[in-house]
Design the sequence.
C-alpha cells in the first residue's frame, strides 16, 4: 500500500513538474517576412537591401541573440509590383508572421489598410511621409524624404553667402517624388529664406542641356534632387559637361547639386563618375567610406556572409541591416520581459522605443526612436559630399528644424 | 446530327438553328454543368490559402477583361493595346466615387453590384469614344490610336490630384447578407462574385455571337467591305465592339478595385495591356474557351517565372541583374512560340482533345 502511494506521488510530481516547466525551454521560431524588388525596377537598391536583412537575421541566429529561439525570415521578390507584394503579405500572414518588412511606396500605401486591420508592425524601405499618415502600424526606419529635403534646404540656406538663394527642385515623376516638394514649399512659407525657382519632374531624357541652360538663365544656384540615382547621374554629367558644377559649396556662378537618400550612395558615383564630385547628399546612414566602428561592423557582416564589395559598401545594404536590427531588438526586449512574442507585443515594444529605451543601430547616425506620435525612426541626418570619388561627411549629424515647424 | 442528343457522335446539322446551339450534345451540357459545379464547390471542401485564392481571383478578373478584348480583337479583328486603361477606367470609377462620397458610404459598401455595373458602363463610354477612330483607321493605325488612349490615361491618373496622382485610393469593404465581408472571407467572397460574373458574361458573349450582331462582328473582321455589301453596318459594329470591350474591362476593373480594396496607378500600365493581349493570343484569338485558357496560362507562367527569377536573384551576381530579365524573356518567348507553332492558341489544343475524346476509339 505504501509503495503504491509513493508511486502515485512520483507520477503526480512528474506531471506537476512537466506542467510547470517554462515554455521558453522549447526553442521557438519567430516568422518575419520581407517582400521587395530583388529583380525588376529598383532592384539595384532592393538586391543589397535584401542581403542586408538576410545577413543580419543569419547573424542573429548564428550568434544566438535570441537564445535558443530563432528568426525564421522569408524574403520574397515582388518585382516592384503591388499585386505580388499583396500576395506575399497574405502568404506571410498564413505562415504566422509577427513582424513585416515592406519595400516600395506604392505597395506600402496600398497595403496600409491591411497592416491596420491585422495590426502588423511594418517597416518599409520607402521613407515617404505619406506612409505614416493615418497609420498606427507603419514605422519609417529613418527620417522621411520630406525631412531630408528640408534638411538639405536648411543647410543651403545656412551656408549660402549672399541674397536669398535660388533653388530648383528635381524630383521623381510620382507621388514618391512630389511629396517632399509641398513640404519644402511649406518650410519656405514658414520662414526658410530661399526661393524655389522651378520644380522639374524628370523623364527618361539622356540629355538635360536645355533644362540646365534654362536654370542658368534663371540664376539657379542650388538643385535639390529627390529621385533615384540614374536621372541624377544624367543631370550631373550634363552639368559637368557644361562646366556648371560648383567646385565648392555655393560657388558663385555655378550650381551646387544636392540630393536625398536614394539619389546618392556608391551607385551614383559608379554612374556619374567624376561628374559626381562635390555632389551633396543626405541620409541617416553611416557610409563605409568614412572610418568608423559602424562601417567596420557593416563590412565585417558582409565579409562573414561572403558578400561582394559593391553590396558591402552599399547604403541600401545598411538600410536592410537597420530594419532587421530593429525587428530583432523588439523581439529581444519582449523576451526579456517574459512576454509572448507576437505582433501585439512587438508593436508595443516599438512604441516604447524612445528616451532611455532608444535603440542604437550599428548603421545609422542617430538613435532609432518611436512612440505613439513618432513613427520616424532615426530623425538625425548626416550630410555627405563626394570628394575624390568617395562620400565624405560634411559637418556633424543634425536634425532639421522646419520639419516640426510645418506640422 | 443524331436525333438522340445523348448518342450523337458526329455533326449532322440539318438546320442553322441546330448549328447555333450552345451545347451540341447532352453530354456536353452535363459535363459543363459538372465542371461549373466543381468550380463553385471546391472552396467548400478544399481550404486554399489567401495567397492562392488571390491568384484565382486575379485570374478571374483577367478572364473578364480578356472576354472583352477577345470580342474586339479576336472576333472583331480590331487591335486594341490600351485594354488595361479601360480596366483602369472601371477601377477608378469606383475608387474616385469612394474618394468623393467616402469609402465607407453605403453606395460603395452595400450597393457594390451597382458600382460594378457603373464601372462597366463608364468603361463602355470610354470604349465607344476610343472606338470612334475605328470608323476610319485599321491595323497599325488603330493600334496607335488605342495606344494613345493608354498613354493619356497613364498621364491623367499619374498627374492629376483628383486621382491622387496615381497613389492608392481606398475602397471600403463590402457587405453581404451575412454582414461585412471581413478579411477572413474576403478572397473567397470575391472568388464567388467573380466566378458568377464570369459565367454570366461568358454566356452573354456566347449568346451574342449567335445573334445577328455577333455574326456581323465576325463578318466585319473577315472583310468589312463584303460585310457592308451584305447589308451589315461595319461602322456601328466596330464602334460598338469597342464599347462592349470597354464594358467588360470596366466590370473587371471595378471588381479588381473591390478585390484589392482600392485602385493604384501601377495596375493599369501599358505592361498590363500587353499582358492582356498576350493572354488573348495564347488562349486563342476569336475563341471563347481561349478566353479562359489564356489568362490562366499567362498568370500561372508568371507565377512560376517569379519563383525562378527570385531563386536566380539570390544566386546570380546582383551587379549583372540577370534575374530581372528572366520574366520578360519567358513572356516574350511564349508569345513567339505560340505565334510560330500554335497561332490558334491553347483553345486549339482543347479542340483537338475534344475531337479525340469524341471520336475515340476511332482515329477519325
Sequence:
Amino acid at each position: 500500500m505504501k509503495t503504491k502511494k509513493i508511486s502515485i506521488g512520483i507520477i503526480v510530481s512528474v506531471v506537476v513538474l512537466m506542467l510547470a516547466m517554462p515554455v521558453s525551454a522549447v526553442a521557438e521560431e519567430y516568422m518575419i517576412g520581407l517582400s521587395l524588388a530583388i529583380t525588376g525596377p529598383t532592384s539595384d537598391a532592393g538586391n543589397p537591401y535584401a542581403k542586408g536583412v538576410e545577413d543580419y537575421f543569419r547573424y542573429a541566429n548564428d550568434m544566438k541573440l535570441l537564445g535558443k529561439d530563432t528568426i525564421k525570415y522569408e524574403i520574397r521578390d515582388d518585382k516592384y509590383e503591388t499585386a505580388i507584394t499583396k500576395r506575399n503579405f497574405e502568404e506571410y500572414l498564413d505562415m504566422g508572421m509577427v513582424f513585416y518588412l515592406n519595400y516600395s511606396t506604392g505597395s506600402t500605401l496600398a497595403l496600409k489598410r491591411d497592416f491596420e486591420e491585422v495590426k502588423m508592425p511594418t517597416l518599409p524601405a520607402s521613407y515617404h511621409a505619406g506612409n505614416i499618415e493615418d497609420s498606427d502600424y507603419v514605422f519609417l526606419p529613418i527620417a522621411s524624404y520630406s525631412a531630408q529635403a528640408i534638411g538639405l534646404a536648411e543647410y543651403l540656406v545656412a551656408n549660402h553667402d549672399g541674397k536669398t538663394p535660388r533653388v530648383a527642385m528635381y524630383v521623381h515623376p510620382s507621388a514618391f517624388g512630389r511629396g517632399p516638394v509641398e513640404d519644402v514649399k511649406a518650410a519656405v512659407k514658414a520662414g526658410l529664406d530661399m526661393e524655389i525657382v522651378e520644380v522639374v519632374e524628370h523623364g527618361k531624357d539622356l540629355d538635360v542641356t536645355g533644362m540646365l541652360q534654362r536654370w542658368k538663365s534663371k540664376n539657379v544656384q542650388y538643385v535639390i534632387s529627390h529621385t533615384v540615382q540614374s536621372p541624377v547621374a544624367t543631370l550631373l554629367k550634363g552639368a559637368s559637361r557644361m562646366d556648371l558644377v560648383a567646385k565648392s559649396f555655393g560657388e558663385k556662378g555655378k550650381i551646387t547639386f544636392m540630393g536625398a537618400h536614394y539619389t546618392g550612395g556608391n551607385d551614383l558615383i559608379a554612374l556619374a563618375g567624376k561628374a559626381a564630385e562635390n555632389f551633396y547628399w543626405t541620409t541617416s546612414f553611416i557610409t563605409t567610406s568614412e572610418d568608423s566602428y559602424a562601417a567596420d561592423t557593416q563590412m565585417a557582416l558582409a565579409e562573414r556572409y561572403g558578400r561582394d564589395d559593391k553590396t558591402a559598401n552599399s547604403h541600401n545594404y545598411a538600410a536592410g541591416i537597420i530594419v532587421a536590427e530593429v525587428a530583432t531588438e523588439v523581439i529581444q526586449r519582449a523576451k526579456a520581459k517574459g512576454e509572448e512574442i507576437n505582433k501585439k507585443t512587438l508593436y508595443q515594444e516599438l512604441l516604447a522605443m524612445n528616451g532611455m529605451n532608444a535603440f542604437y543601430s550599428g548603421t545609422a547616425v542617430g538613435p532609432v526612436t518611436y512612440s505613439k506620435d513618432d513613427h520616424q525612426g532615426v530623425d538625425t541626418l548626416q550630410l555627405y559630399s563626394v570628394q575624390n570619388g568617395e562620400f565624405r561627411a560634411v559637418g556633424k549629424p543634425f536634425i532639421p528644424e522646419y520639419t516640426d515647424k510645418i506640422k | 446530327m443524331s436525333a438522340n442528343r445523348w448518342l450523337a457522335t458526329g455533326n449532322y446539322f440539318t438546320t442553322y438553328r441546330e448549328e447555333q446551339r450552345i451545347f451540341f450534345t447532352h453530354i456536353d451540357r452535363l459535363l459543363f454543368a459538372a465542371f461549373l459545379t466543381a468550380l463553385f464547390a471546391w472552396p467548400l471542401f478544399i481550404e486554399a490559402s489567401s495567397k492562392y485564392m488571390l491568384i484565382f481571383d486575379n485570374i478571374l478578373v483577367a478572364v473578364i477583361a480578356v472576354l472583352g478584348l477577345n470580342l474586339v480583337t479576336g472576333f472583331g479583328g480590331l487591335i486594341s493595346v490600351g485594354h488595361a486603361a479601360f480596366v483602369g477606367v472601371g477601377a477608378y470609377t469606383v475608387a474616385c466615387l469612394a474618394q468623393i462620397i467616402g469609402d465607407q458610404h453605403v453606395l460603395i459598401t452595400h450597393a457594390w453590384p451597382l458600382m460594378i455595373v457603373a464601372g462597366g458602363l463608364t468603361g463602355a463610354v470610354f470604349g465607344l469614344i476610343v472606338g470612334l477612330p475605328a470608323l476610319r483607321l485599321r491595323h497599325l493605325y488603330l493600334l496607335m490610336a488605342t495606344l494613345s488612349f493608354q498613354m493619356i490615361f497613364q498621364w491623367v491618373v499619374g498627374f492629376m490630384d483628383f486621382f491622387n496622382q496615381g497613389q492608392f485610393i481606398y475602397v471600403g469593404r463590402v457587405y453581404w447578407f451575412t454582414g461585412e465581408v471581413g478579411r477572413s472571407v474576403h478572397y473567397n467572397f470575391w472568388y464567388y462574385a467573380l466566378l458568377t460574373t464570369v459565367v454570366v458574361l461568358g454566356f452573354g458573349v456566347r449568346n451574342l455571337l449567335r445573334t445577328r450582331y455577333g455574326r456581323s462582328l465576325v463578318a466585319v473582321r473577315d472583310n468589312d467591305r463584303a460585310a457592308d455589301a451584305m447589308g451589315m453596318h461595319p461602322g456601328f459594329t466596330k464602334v460598338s465592339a469597342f464599347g462592349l470591350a470597354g464594358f467588360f474591362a470596366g466590370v473587371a476593373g471595378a471588381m479588381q478595385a473591390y478585390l484589392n480594396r482600392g485602385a493604384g496607378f501601377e495596375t493599369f500600365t501599358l505592361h498590363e495591356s500587353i499582358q492582356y493581349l498576350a493572354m488573348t493570343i495564347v488562349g486563342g484569338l476569336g475563341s471563347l474557351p481561349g478566353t479562359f485558357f489564356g489568362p490562366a496560362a499567362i498568370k500561372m507562367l508568371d507565377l512560376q517565372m517569379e519563383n525562378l527569377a527570385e531563386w536566380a536573384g539570390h544566386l546570380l551576381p546582383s551587379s549583372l541583374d540577370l534575374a530581372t530579365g528572366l520574366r520578360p524573356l519567358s513572356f516574350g518567348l511564349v508569345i513567339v512560340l505560340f505565334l510560330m507553332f500554335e497561332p490558334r492558341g491553347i483553345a486549339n489544343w482543347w479542340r483537338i482533345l475534344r475531337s479525340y475524346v469524341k471520336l475515340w476509339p476511332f482515329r477519325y
Observations:
- The mean pLDDT of chain A is 91.
